[in-house]
Every structure is written in C-alpha cells, then in structure tokens.
Amino acid sequence: MTAAPGGSRALRSWGASAVCLSYDGVLALDGVSVAVAGGQITAAVGGDGAGKTSLLRCLAGVLRPDSGEVRRPDKARIGFLPASSGIYPDLTVAENLAFRATGYGLRADVAARRAADLMEQAGLAAARDRLAAKLSGGMRQKLGVIAALLHRPELLILDEPSTGVDPVSRSGLWWLIASAAADGAAVIFATTYLDDAQRAAEVLVLDAGRPLALGAPDQIVRALPGSVRALSAPPAGAAGDRAWRRGAGWRVWCPPGVSSPESAGTPAEADLEDAVIVASLARQLPELPRAGGSAAAPEQLTPVPQPAVQLTPVPQPAVQHPAAPLVESIAVTCRFGSLTAVRDVSIAVRPGEIVGLLGANGAGKTTLIRMLLGLIPATAGQVRLLGEQPSRATRRRIGYVPQGLGLYDDLTAAENMAFAAAVFGSSAASFPAEAPVSRALPVGQLPLGLQRRVAFAQALAHQPDVLILDEPTSGVDPLGRTRLWQSIAAAVQSGAGALVSTHYMEEAQECDRLIIMADGIVVAAGTAAQIIGDARVTVVDAEDWATAFGLLERAGLAVSLAGRTLRVPGASPDEVRQVLPAGYRVHAEAGTLEERFFELLGVAARDAVPG
Description:
Blueprint: E1 2-3, E2 10-11, E3 13-23, E4 26-37, E5 40-45, H1 52-60, E6 67-71, E7 78-81, H2 93-104, H3 108-122, H4 137-149, E8 155-159, H5 167-182, E9 186-191, H6 194-197, E10 202-207, E11 210-215, H7 217-222, E12 227-231, E13 243-246, E14 249-254, E15 266-267, H8 272-284, E16 327-336, E17 339-349, E18 354-359, H9 365-372, E19 380-385, H10 392-395, E20 398-401, H11 413-424, H12 436-440, H13 448-460, E21 466-470, H14 478-493, E22 497-501, E23 513-518, E24 521-526, H15 528-532, E25 536-541, H16 545-554, E26 560-562, E27 565-568, H17 573-579, E28 585-590, H18 593-607
Parallel strand pairs: 5-9, 5-10, 7-8, 8-9, 18-22, 18-23, 20-21, 21-22
Antiparallel strand pairs: 1-2, 3-4, 3-6, 10-11, 12-14, 12-15, 13-14, 16-17, 16-19, 23-24, 25-27, 25-28, 26-27
Helix pairs in contact: 2-3, 2-4, 3-4, 4-5, 11-13, 13-14
C-alpha cells in the first residue's frame, strides 16, 4: 500500500489473474490477467465480443468466473458504470444522484455537497432538475460517471464510457476519470477505440476472450514482432493477408523470419494501432513464426474464430471522374422555429474522395445530412444531389449507413440483404463462409460489430454513387475497422464519393478532407494537417502527475491526461511553469487534431451570433 499521487489516500492494486468464464459452453474469457493500480488508469481494448464487458463484470462482482482469481475491494467501495449508463430515465439528474447516494449509505448532507460539486465540475449543474431521458447521450454518460464517483470508490469500473459520445462530452468525461485517478482510485475502462486507450497508463488488448497484449502503450509498440512497412498500394500475394489500409496509404507487417519481395516499401514508425493490428494478425495467421523467428507452442496456434459475416468489397467498374460534385450544399440554412440549426453552410463531395464531417452534438451535422438526402427542406440556399434536387430517384443511388444501422432486427442478415436488394432493384450481396448459427440468427441477436458489417454490405450492394455514413465503425475492433475503411476506399476509388460523420479524431486520417462544424456553421475545412497548422500544446512529464494535475486545474488551466503525461493546450510553457514547483519537465509539442478541434469550438462559441 502506498500514498496516492495527490497525497489524498492510500493506494491499492486490484485486478484478475488467469480468469476463465463461459456462457453456455461458449468461452468468453480465457486466462485473462490484469492489474488495476490505484492512482492509475487501465484500458481494456477490443471489438464487440472481445470479452471486455465480461472482464469488467467479474471485477465488479456481478459475475463469478469459472476459474482464476479476482481481487477487488468490498462492493461498497466499487463504482460501476455499465454500458447502458445505469441511469433511471424517469428521474431528474439530482434525483438519480440522491437515489444512488442512498444506495451507498451516504449521509444526506455529505451526498448533497458531493453531488453539487460533481455536477458543477461536469457542467451538469444547470440540468439538475431535468429528466435523465431529456439529456443528450454525452450528458447521460457524464451523469453515469458522476453517480459511480459519488462515494469516492477505491475501484472505478467504466464499460465503454465514451462510445457514441461527441468530442466535447468525451473531454468532460476524461476530466472526470482523470480526477478520480488523481484522487487515488484504481480506474479500468473498456473501449473499442485506441485514441481512448492512449490516455491510459496500462492497456490490455482482448480478442475473442483472449489477451493479445498487456502493458503501457509504448511497451506494447516496442514488443511488436518483426517490422511494419509503409506502401502506396496494397501488396499482392501472401503479403496481402498481412496488410491494412492506413490513411491514404497501406501498411504491411513483416514477421520475423519472413522475407519476401512483398515486404518492399519504406520502414514505418509503428504506433499502438499498428501493434494491436499486428497482434490480431498474428492470432489469425498462426502458421507465421513469432518474435525471434521461433514458432509458437501448438496450443497457441488455434486461430480465433472469425465473424460469420465477412464483408467483401463489391467490385465496381472504373469510371471517369467528372469534376462536378456528387453532393453539395450552397449557402444552406435550416431553421426550426426560432432555432437556426444550420447557417449558411457550403460543402461539396466529389467523386474519388472521402470527406469527414466532425462536430459536437448540436453542431448541425445530422440536420445537414438530412438536407443533403432531401429528407428535410432547406430554409434558404440550395442542395444538389447527383447534379439535381434530391428525389426518390437520386436517393436510389446512395449507400446510407445511419448510426442506428437501418437493419431489421427480426430478419437475418441474408433476409435484410434480400429486402434491400428488392428495394434497390439489385442483386443481393453474398457473405462468404457464413456459419450456420449466424445464418439462422436474427440480426438483432448478432454482436454490434457484425451488425455493422451487414449494414456496410447492404449499403454497398447496389454499387452506389454516393456513400453517406454516420459513425460507421463504432463497436468494431481495430483490424475490423481497417477492413471497413478498405471497403469505403474501394468504392471511392471506383468513382463514388463518401461523406463520413464521426466523433473519433483517429479516423480523420482516413479522410481526404475534413469539415468541422460548430453551432451550425463550418469553422474549418481542409486536410488534417492544414487544420492543425502550427498549433502547439504544452506538455508536462512527471511520475507525480496527480499533484501537477491538481495544481493546474486549480489554476483554471485546461488539462488532459495521457498515460502519465499531462497536456495543457492554450497555455505556454512559461505559464505552466509558474503554476508548478521546480522539478517538472515542461516543454511544447505539436498540437493534435483533437486539441485544435477544441480551440476552434472555443472561438466559435465566442463569435456565436443569436438566431
């Protein structure tokens, strides 16, 4: 037991050792071990069905594993956020917290002060009397985290706290999580996104219930067997199975002991995404030698069962790319009564390009997409879809994946595909290697990641000229996500255009251009590099990060945690040094797209005009 980083309370370590768990004979966890240290944030990463939720539920005491050991504090000292947020929709914000405080046995006056402080810090004070059902998704998640933090738990367990949450709400969530760790709590959270995992000091990567990697993000990268090389096009031959799309180019894994002409290209500096993808490939391609050129033990050579439905890009004939936009808005404005949801927005999506649409909830993205589809009229301005006014005829040439996927839960994947083919007058796409169990199951009973593959296949089956995709990869593991982006790129290279709405900045590298919206207007457009420009951020390196976090926060500076490093956008190194005592390493680095995004949102908020 040691003192908390911030000196607030003693630290303890919790976790699991060699945990195994099955559901009706199906293995959900297979020998999973993880340590969750006090004053530290640990991430459990993997796609839908990887075993993240099962692990967290074992740690919380909700499930009892078949074998192995779980070390956790008394249940009264655990804070748990389920994937559903655990909030009662028919209670107000304040009533939810009061109810949770009663369950924790907190004194009314103590609970009231703690709830008021947390609501203020999370920006929910003004919504204290609002029904939880009326909150945005991000606000509900923040309320769920606050409820789990109310009693200052020793172990904080968060199941996908940021999935589907816009960047602004994610920033607030991460501030709450970092504050809990600074207070000495041991924090573990589940996520499908590696930009979330980069914020953690320790990362556990899961795939089909088995651990693929465990350690600090930089340790996982250093342990990558072999090397990664960058290519301008996908390699031919056997190397194609070891390649994945990355931004505008490709990367290929060259395992140790494997040398072939396909390994051409230039050396690439691997990051956490590359390392996790390589770990997944190593599990799927067991015949390849491991680190040092030695083969794995036989029991390690069992391939991970692959999803029953695998998306195969639909071949499309090469076409001449006309200069005219496929989709465009010209100075469009949309009002709902006194509310202006979109104001004077002009965008264009041309053949052969992927355009990313970024913005917080309420920025106007969904309203803009619905105008482009012709589902709602513009109050002013003009919308052109495939060169004319949006109509039933032009919409037949669109491949659309809404955030809700647009699938019928009570139909199987094949039945959904057949229905879509009948609507569009095309041939239904087929799914290779479809397993009988998935063939018989309704889509609503399939894992979310597999549902997304079905939705993608359905959207691409009629060879659309335009793809409009809303949060297309949520819940998909890193390797599966790259495969989906390959499908998007294949359609675009054949002459289609794609407009992709996403909350996750790591996906911006897959887009040729970005459009950032805030308060109904476009605040930036261009490539990621153009938008970031020469933006800089101050970085603080220290083992005693919690003390520095508290000092910077009390000084009114925006601060975020990444592992054991603090990032302070909007403040110079000299300003930060004035707040911290001697001994901290303070320097400036290039800013990230996410940090530039928040800067743009701040400028938009200051310049906002009414109506």
